[in-house]
Amino acid sequence: MTAIVALAFALLMFPISSPVRALSSKYYDHSCPQLESIVTSAVKKAMLNDKTVPAALLRMHFHDCFIRGCDGSVLLNSKGKNKAEKDGPPNISLHAFYVIDRAKKALESSCPGIVSCADILALAARDAVALSGGPTWKVPKGRKDGRISLATETRQLPAPTFNISQLQQNFAQRGLSLKDLVALSGGHTLGFAHCSSFQNRIHNFNVTLDVDPTMNPSFAARLRSVCPAHNKAKNAGSPLDSSNLIFDNAYYKLLLQGKSIFSSDQALLTTPKTKALASKFASSQKAFEEAFVKSMIKMSSLTGGQEIRLDCRVVR
61 with 295: CB under 8 angstroms? Predict the structure, then answer.
């Protein structure tokens, strides 16, 4: 309860941005025509050396947009006593910031002072999905970079332990619907979860049960073997689905089989509307991809910045 009150208080203190500045997919057509090819090249190059880059970029974009809008605030480094978003507890495991840095460096050579870091991240997230076998889409551009980044605000991010009402409220505060929630949760088709984020489901679930009864028993047993009760292995965990390097609808199929990782995944099956959507996406990759693209454009249109950074890690 304390956490929910703290969350509500944080949202009152730090209002979330809404789509106020009109974005356009043609925003840089004249000022920086080579933008998209430069970003795509940076993502492709990074993927050759590290297969986890797409999941990292997609998660980074989500975490950016959910705090102060998509303003690149997640990219800023901590400075002095100010602890930035990237050093907040939910963001400690974010990585691949260097991909954005490399794209920005190339863009500063081609079209200096023109492209925001927030736009680079939005494009990189799109490329991460497309280059992993998922859909592509035209990204509306014209975001500005924010000047404020506070680790304390990361409490506004939806937690993997959230139930459906907490998730619904969290998304609604950003103008996102239940359909957006179910579609964007499909981003969990890419990536990896550390034990700490799903420990609550496989050990001491409640007073009478050790394991969440909604989990497939053999799946839960496998997770318990990888993540023992007093796990000491820093990098231990589980892929988020069975094809975690490919953007597909396996996440929803596994969800319906009791093989989801997070409580917040399982929560999608606890209301008729969200369960029906999850079932629809499990049976149709096309329906999932169409909904995902719409929700990504909607989420990434939350704006809130003021400037164009020259270095994505520091304000001007």
Answer: no
The dihedral over CA atoms of 74, 188, 289, 177, expressed in degrees to the nearest 10, equals: -70
How far apart (Å, rounded) are the C-alpha atoms in residues 220 and 232? Answer: 19
Residue found by looking up tokens 């609550």 in the block: 200
**Identified catalytic residue from 63, 188, 194, 230:** 63
Q: What is the pLDDT along the chain (316 residues), one digit of tens a residue?
A: 444 444 444 444 444 444 445 899 999 999 999 999 999 999 999 999 999 999 999 999 999 999 999 999 999 999 999 999 999 999 999 999 999 999 999 999 999 999 999 999 999 999 999 999 999 999 999 999 999 999 999 999 999 999 999 999 999 999 999 999 999 999 999 999 999 999 999 999 999 999 999 999 999 999 999 999 988 888 899 999 999 999 999 999 999 999 999 999 999 999 999 999 999 999 999 999 999 999 999 999 998 899 999 999 999 9
- List the structure tokens of 45: 């190059």
Separation CA 61–CA 25 (nearest Å)? 18
CB-based contact 78:25 (threshold 8 Å): no
The per-residue b/e assignment along 127-153, b for 16 or more CB within 10 angstroms, e otherwise, is bbbbbbebbebebbbbbbbbebbbbeb
The tokens for 251 are 């996440």
To which residue do tokens 């169409």 refer?
Answer: 290
Residue 182, H or E segment = helix 178-185
Q: Give the separation between CA 240 and CA 251, rounded to whole angstroms.
A: 8
Give the amino acid at 286: K
How would you class 268 by CB atoms within 10 Å of its CB: exposed for 0-12, middle for 13-18, buried for 19 or more? buried
DSSP string, 261-296: SSHHHHGGGSSHHHHHHHHHHHH-HHHHHHHHHHHH
Tell me the Cα Rg of the chain: 19
d(CA 181, CA 183): 6
Q: Verify whether residue 61 is a known catalytic residue.
A: no
- For the record, the structure tokens of 280 come out as 């629809």
